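Weekly modeling sync, notes
Attendees: AB, CL, MP (scribe)

Item 1: holo prediction request
CL wants a bound-state model with magnesium ion before deciding which constructs to order. AB pointed out that an apo prediction alone won't tell us much about the pocket. Agreed to run with the ligand included and paste results into these notes for async review.

Input as submitted:
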Amino acid sequence: MTLVRFQHIMSDEIARRSFISRPPEPPAEVLLSDPFQSLYVGTTKIFHVPFTWSFLNLTNPHIAVVGITGSGKSFFVKSLIIRASYVWGTNAVIIDWAGEYKAWVKQSGGTIVSLAKGDYINIMDLSGMKPLDRVKQIMNSFDILTDIALYPEQRRLTEEAMEQSYVNSGFELAERYPTEKQAPTLADVISLLEEKLQEGTYEYPAELENTIYRLRQFAREGEDYFARRSTLDLAKLTESGLVDVDLSGLPDERFRGLAALVILQTLKERMRSEGWSETKGLKVMVVLDEAWKVASDEKSDAIMIVREGRKYNFGLIVASQNPTDINEAIFSNVGTTFMLRIKFEKFLNYLQGSLNFSNFIRMEIGKFGVGQAAVEMAFQTALRFPETFLLEKIHGEEPLYVYTIELSDVLTQSELSANIIQRDYQFEKDELKNRLIEYNVGADSINQVFAELDGRNRSIKMLDFIQLIKANGVQVNNIVGFLKGLSIEDQLITRIISSTGVETV
Ligand SMILES: Nc1ncnc2c1ncn2[C@@H]1O[C@H](COP(=O)(O)OP(=O)(O)OP(=O)(O)O)[C@@H](O)[C@H]1O
Ligand SMILES: [Mg+2]
């Protein structure tokens, strides 16, 4: 007992002393910026001060987010994107590795670009670059994603053939070209190499064959996502509101990596050519969540962007469960790092080594609940307060979930084509809940119904819905009441009830 009390007094004493020399959180004027020029994140742990994020005093607008699965990384990223769109009209481009953001983007009225489903990117498009520079970038991507660097002859052959195909298509290698001018494709490059092989004069035919084989991997029928003319204008992504580039359907990590790198390179060129505009906010936020080598390889554009700091008016957000997948150069150069819950000592060592926070912060990070975080900010000027502080909770935007009941299974073909009867009903979650409460559905049943609906991606056919609420104890007269409440005509109600086999009273 005495020992405990003694320790208690000791730690109190230490806390007070360190408080005098150094406050535990940055001062309120730093935490709370002009609400028209900053994004609300949550409240701090010690003084419960609202924290709003702004990059005006930071070295750059780029952000790293780390934390174990389920700690709240994506939730935080989504909230930040939404608020940036309110405050600054910021566009967002999500490079969606696992298709994790797709449903949310769809719900939020954004655009989804699915590379595996009919959209193509020609990796040789110039977007304002010189062909020479573009070839260097493509080779850099191949270096990151494949082992071509180990085969200098194959590398050289590839580079040369790319340059040659630009020349053959009428480009000057050292000129800049507008987006409209049609660039050659990887298919053209392969043809050139094949011709060379046919000629039979090249002295290392095996090298040539291997070079062709390498490139063909990205140009196979059905997997030629990067070897055809583009169906997308990548540069336009930066001005299209909320865009999800879904990479989850691509065959493997190399394809996803290539897409991510090409997108980053194009956005970077676009921003570089426009220069830092006088707007105070961010024009675009680009999200890279769990992006494999794209965030870890020294040569990646993600690292270049973060290193080059604030000259582009976009903020790159790099998120990962595994901090060691994020290159140290990213942690030491981003303006802000959000650390959510992290368990492994190895990861904590890596972060503490890169960011230099105290053991106290380290211990707290290991104990966080969902949505709690430590924030580290790199200010432009030297400061007398700690750069790392704790957030009690990230306050996110509650997602607006929309539930759909479809009538396609109860309407006849002619009703469907006549287009005079409403085909589906959409409800916001609370609205549907209230309607069910109104018809005496108990809380447990409501939870069951929503669990089932969520499992079906929040969309259900009418007859299945009726079966579902009936199975959860809703009486027939209440089902009828619910349907009447939707202004469905009596005749159709009768049809619905009788086709579900629900006994009428
Ligand atoms: N700050 C928060 N407040 C309330 N709920 C939250 C918060 N953060 C996360 N959640 C909820 O916790 C769950 C997990 O969050 P999220 O998907 O963001 O985790 P994650 O870190 O991205 O995980 P993963 O690495 O698996 O992608 C979600 O259902 C989300 O709605
Ligand atoms: Mg996530």
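Recorded for review: Confidence is low (pLDDT under 50) at residues 1-10, 12-20.
Action items: CL to compare against the apo run; MP to circulate these notes.
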